Amino acid sequence: MPRAVFTxxxxxDRLAEYRERHAAVWPDMLCALRDAGWHDYRLYLRxxxxxxxxxxxxxxAAAQTAVDATEVSARWEASxxxxxxxxxxSGKAELSLVFDLDAQLTALGEPTTAAPxxxx
Length: 120
Prior knowledge:
- With 120 residues, the chain is an alpha+beta fold.
- Helix content is 37%, strand content 20%.
């Protein structure tokens, strides 16, 4: 399954509360993400507020549209908007892949870094 990576900028004065909110995301929001096609979704936060999201999904735009169509997402996004420098979370920027170790090893006919038993 393809992996998408994106960035956002969290306001530096809200980092601690942002971390707290994500320590226990609402159960119905978790289910909405799953049901919309978000798989193995992770967020990484740097001390200056750079947020990096990594998600496996066939189509990030379609998965985002599907989750945006839920009532819980509207509530969650409204509650999280003040945390972002843009004030509404609209600064999401998808990153393009420039290097893939396993793909290049495979092209050479070399063993990849996949863990034993991992089909990827």
